[in-house]
Design brief:
The protein is mostly helical and about 325 residues long. It is built from 14 helices and no strands. The chain is globular, with a radius of gyration of 21 Å.
Length: about 325
């Protein structure tokens, strides 16, 4: 019941935000923008995007290396499948799917893999805030963006410090946990300790400054390539703006996708991208057209590639949905 409520809240939010995307626009002008757009720019834009996905796979390699070295090609495949599932199914179950597939194929703790995926989200958030901060040196930011930067910086700083302390003080946490679980039945005490071991194993990268720095570097590079995709596709609509504008749009749009929404982040992604472009003088209708095509370019190719990779591995969406939730959430406990 709680999941259903969350899903409907996401649908309502997405529909409301889509209404905002189209508010103040001329539908005929949107159609004209699509008819006159130069779709040649889709090709280099998609190349840049998939280079970014590849760099995320390299980042994941460094996050996992302290647990078990895994080839970048395998991680690329699993990453694309996870993105595909997130675009098609609710509750961002693609993250559980990634943990399930990698845990099964590489024989490592699925819970530990899931912790590295959580670390990815932390590195993403830190990167987005760095982007906004750097963009502020080149662009005039309004009060809303400055507030987002301040709140986001405080939030992610707290998360990073907490995770770093947990990784660095594992022995103390182990002692406290064993004391806290000592009165539980043996079965539950063993499960709790096993889950804690998996959690701390996933955080091992934070005890290795070299791998952690490499993960941050590849996170920055990956998102810069995605911002390059935004800028390249904009040329097809005659939108010529300084690159920091697209860096800013990338950062704000991906921070806002934390808000509940439908699969594929409908509306949640589109409103901030259109708003950033409009803020820097782009016509509302052209900005809306560009945003819709950009969103489609981020989803459709990944979905088709993810389905092909899933079929190649002999998997199905239904199987992944059931097995990932059951295995990651229950068998690791």
């Amino acid at each position: 019941m709680r999941k259903q409520k969350t899903l409907w809240i996401g649908v309502i939010i997405s529909l409301g935000l889509l209404a905002i995307v189209f508010y103040g626009t001329d539908l005929n002008a949107i159609g004209d923008a699509f008819r006159t757009a130069n779709y040649f720019y889709l090709v280099p834009a998609l190349v840049l995007y998939f280079i970014g996905v590849g760099l995320r796979a390299v980042r994941w390699h460094f996050l996992l290396r302290s647990i078990k070295p895994v080839g970048v090609w395998r991680l690329f495949q699993v990453t694309v499948i996870g993105y595909m599932v997130n675009d098609l199914l609710p509750f961002r179950i693609g993250e559980l799917v990634r943990a399930y597939i990698l845990g099964e194929t590489e024989r490592i703790s699925k819970a530990s893999v899931l912790v590295t995926i959580i670390l990815e989200r932390v590195f993403d958030g830190v990167t987005m805030l760095l982007f906004i901060g750097v963009a502020s040196f080149f662009l005039p930011l309004n009060e809303a963006l400055r507030t987002l930067l301040l709140i986001g910086s405080l939030l992610f700083a707290a998360v990073v410090v907490a995770l770093a302390l947990a990784a660095g003080l594992r022995e103390r946490f182990d002692a406290l946990l064993r004391r806290a679980l000592s009165r539980l039945p043996e079965k539950w005490r063993a499960r709790g300790l096993r889950l804690a071991d998996s959690f701390f194993l996933g955080l091992t990268v934070l005890r290795n400054p070299t791998d952690a720095a490499a993960a941050l570097l590849f996170s920055i590079l990956a998102w810069l390539f995605e911002a390059g995709m935004y800028a390249t596709l904009a040329l097809g609509f005659g939108i010529v703006l300084p690159f920091p504008v697209f860096v800013l749009a990338t950062a704000v749009a991906n921070l806002v996708t934390i808000v509940p929404s439908t699969p594929g982040y409908v509306g949640v992604f589109d409103v901030p991208v259109k708003a950033i472009l409009a803020l820097f003088g782009v016509n509302e209708s052209i900005a809306a057209s560009y945003t819709l095509l950009l969103h489609a370019a981020l989803i459709v190719p990944v979905v088709f590639l993810g389905l092909a990779l899933m079929w190649r591995l002999g998997l199905s969406l239904g199987q992944l949905r059931k097995q990932s939730a059951r295995n990651v959430a229950l068998k690791e406990m």
